[in-house]
Every structure is written in structure tokens, then in C-alpha cells.
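ok new one. same drill as before - C-alpha cells go in, u give me an amino acid for every spot. 82 of them this time. try not to just spam alanines like last time pls lmao
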């Protein structure tokens, strides 16, 4: 049996996932609690991710958050080996 795959449109994939998460959380930026839920990781892992130099963050006072768009793009780049 042969399968035919459509070429993957990364921009469309990012847009659809950003729209889904924005609608689910009703905001454009997420913190460690949402990252925990999305990625299925613990609190310490989510906070370590927000403190890493390889993760896109915005500092709001003492709080570190990431835009949903940057988060989704980061996830896809990691899945693609980037």
C-alpha cells in the first residue's frame, strides 16, 4: 500500500497552532503553567526552559513569558532538528 503525503506548509502549520492555542488560553503570551500543560512537563522543567538561552522569552517585571507565536515556531524548529 502506498501513501501519498502532501507537502508540509510550515507557515500554515504554525498559523493554525497559534490560532488554536490563542483561542484555548484566550491570550497571546503564556507562562510556565501553560507550557507545563502544552508540553506535558513538570514545573521545574518548564521554569528551566524559560530560563534557558535557547527559548524565546519576554520579561514582564519578575515574570518570564513567551508569545504563543514564538513558542510554536520554537517547537516546530526543535521537531525539525533546528
Amino acid at each position: 500500500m502506498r501513501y501519498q503525503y502532501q507537502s508540509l506548509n510550515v507557515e500554515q502549520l504554525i498559523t493554525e497552532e497559534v490560532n488554536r492555542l490563542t483561542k484555548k488560553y484566550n491570550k497571546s503570551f503564556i507562562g510556565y503553567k501553560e507550557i507545563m500543560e502544552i508540553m506535558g512537563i513538570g514545573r521545574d522543567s518548564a521554569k528551566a526552559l524559560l530560563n534557558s538561552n535557547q527559548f524565546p522569552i519576554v520579561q514582564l517585571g519578575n515574570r518570564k513569558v513567551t508569545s504563543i507565536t514564538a513558542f510554536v515556531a520554537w517547537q516546530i524548529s526543535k521537531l525539525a532538528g533546528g
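Strands lie at 29-30, 58-60, 63-67. and btw The longest strand covers residues 63-67.
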